[in-house]
Amino acid sequence: MRTILLVEDDLHLAEGLTLNLEAEGYQVVHVSDGTQAMPAFEKGMFDLVLMDIMLPGMDGLTICKKIRAAGHTLPVLFITARDETDQKIEGLLAGGDDYITKPFNVQELLARIAGIFRRQAWLAADEQVSDSYSFDGRTINFKTYEATGPGGKVVLTRKECMVVKYLVERAGEVVSRDQLLDAVWGYHAYPTNRTVDNFILKLRKIFEDDPKEPKYFETIRAVGYRFNRG
């Protein structure tokens, strides 16, 4: 049974979510204050964190950053009442895996959670690339999310790993932004193509000698990106 940590200060919403998640076979642990999130997280073994961004005590973005800084790679799904693209992208770059905007349909939320676990399994699979991949002196481990570039070792977020894996599996091919959005985030109705662009910019800072003159993560103007092994 998968266990979800629910961090939500709206008690009515939290109660409804708990009932629906438990009906789907998930075990749910709920806390209503941001300051309670990390202590609860450290006490349990969770498979996913479902968390509001706007919380009393400590906001969801800060909590997510603390989870990632501690080396935890479990998925984080944000709940937000604000339909602002910049905040959503900030959440994804902070290590979030997905978001859903209030008000939302519970079935959509359940589909998002199922999609996260499905893509998590794809990332862990080694059908086309092994657990560890090397190119031109750079390395990335798709199990541990550890990577090595010119600047040394870093730990990638799950989404960064997914973007790299999708491009690596199609090395030499031109991949559109929509293809990446659909494969990595699971649906087309995501913020904008800026989401992909921001992730590529971050990956260039990690893997390129000169991020402004990319050799490995190449932009194909008006189309998308191409990964070159070097």
TrEMBL record:
Keywords: DNA-binding, Phosphoprotein, Transcription, Transcription regulation, Two-component regulatory system. The modification 4-aspartylphosphate is found at D52. CDD domains: REC_OmpR (cd17574), trans_reg_C (cd00383). GO terms for molecular function: phosphorelay response regulator activity; transcription cis-regulatory region binding. This is DNA-binding response regulator. One of its GO terms (biological process) is regulation of DNA-templated transcription. Coiled coil: none annotated. It comes from candidate division GN15 bacterium. The keyword Protease does not apply. The lineage of its organism: Bacteria, candidate division GN15.
